[in-house]
Amino acid sequence: MKKRLRVIGFDADDTLWINEPYYREAEEAFEKLMKPYKAGKNIAAELYRTEMGNLKWYGYGIKSFILSLVQCAIDITGGRVTSGTISEILQLGRHMLERPIELLEDVRPVIEKLSKQYRLIVATKGDLLDQERKMEKSSISSFFHHIEIMSDKQETHYSLLLHHLEIDPSEFMMIGNSMRSDIFPVLSLGGYAIHVPFHTTWMHEEVEADPVSSRFFRVSRLSEIIGIIDGL
Amino acid sequence: MKKRLRVIGFDADDTLWINEPYYREAEEAFEKLMKPYKAGKNIAAELYRTEMGNLKWYGYGIKSFILSLVQCAIDITGGRVTSGTISEILQLGRHMLERPIELLEDVRPVIEKLSKQYRLIVATKGDLLDQERKMEKSSISSFFHHIEIMSDKQETHYSLLLHHLEIDPSEFMMIGNSMRSDIFPVLSLGGYAIHVPFHTTWMHEEVEADPVSSRFFRVSRLSEIIGIIDGL
């Protein structure tokens, strides 16, 4: 059985490095920018609504997020938002793109070890350029064969990925912090999946019940995945 | 020699389908939106400068373009641009994303024929979601093995692509309308390249001199590439 596993896919944001807290910080900064306009709306809820409405067109990543912030600012202020505030929103986005990378605990040793036995890839929904930039800054890029950018992480997108990698689902394992994006679709195709929870999860990624599958695992520390993979 | 060619990469925008004229139209619409502000600046030149300044951070594609339009509107009006105008700029972007696909001449029969003998991929710099959407609308998606999104198309990016595809440069041919992005870097690595000029080329993609290489070809119609590939 062990020999069968060939490719291990890692989610990037909040699995390899910190990401979601930066979005939360940007959202808080956005709420502050909106405060003087006294829009009297639930800003977080309006922003989420805007993002969901744009998802089909813009997809995921920081550029989509900034575009949604600009649109949301215009909407909730009924057009009263100034170009100065919009400039500040663009700056929020730029700040996110410029942030240094903070690798999560255990990432470097775990990735280094696994890369000796398996082909590792990064499978992520963000912008390619942004993820490449993070990867370069991360000091772990040499352990990955390549980065796979996915427009979404539903079952159909993983099917395309496996076709592209030319492997069977049983030869693939996905590791990530989102049950919805990293775990369920992979299990459903017949692959392995290990859930590594992160303390902050975007509302859009939340699900309720756990899957029932012998190919599903959950760890509280990334280093525990070594034992699971060795034991397959 | 013929057996050696294994993968043919096609640029997407302005090689498979019309793209650049839509950017030109959006730029014209943007200039009209700016007109009432009487900024007295060369709007096209300012926009190009903004785009070049953002390229490192935003990369290519429609979302980057819209973000640059918003920033440029604020800059050239000295902050006088209204949120109403910014909304209209966001709408320009949405309109671009919603446009139907217009395949260029010969594309469908040529792609169909080549797909029987070679692995075809799309290698493009745009947004993945946008390119997937175009591909789905195009009726030619089944002839391609997959889409490769590249953050840029310099030699180093093609090296990564070839590594990812696990082929030698001599097993790869690139077909596209940009000398700078589709032809020069591939020739330089040792691959084959066929230039299919398009009537409109973005300033950023323009170059002057032609390469001297027996692996370089230029055609005036896409259908001519069949004869070249058969004759290798």
Structure description:
The structure is a homodimer of 232-residue chains. With 232 residues, chain A is of the alpha/beta class. Helix content of chain A is 48%, strand content 11%. Chain A has a 6-stranded parallel β-sheet, with helices on both faces. In chain A, strand 2 (119-124), helix 6 (128-138) and strand 3 (146-149) form a beta-alpha-beta unit. The mean pLDDT of chain A is 93. The A-B interface holds A 57-59, 63-64, 66-67, 70-71, 73-74, 77, 79-84, 86-87, 90, 93-94, 97-98, 127-130, 132, 145-146, 149-152, 160, 163-164 and B 57-59, 63-64, 66-67, 70-71, 73-74, 77, 79-84, 86-87, 90, 93-94, 97-98, 127-130, 132, 145-146, 149-152, 160, 163-164.
Q: Low-confidence spans of chain A: pLDDT under 50, at least 5 residues? A: none
Give the oligomer, counting copies of the same chain as homo and different chains as hetero: homodimer
Order of neighbouring strands in the sheet with most strands of chain A: 3-2-1-4-5-6
Number of strands of chain A: 6
Task: Give me the number of helical elements of chain A.
Answer: 9
Question: How would you sum up the global shape of chain A?
Answer: elongated
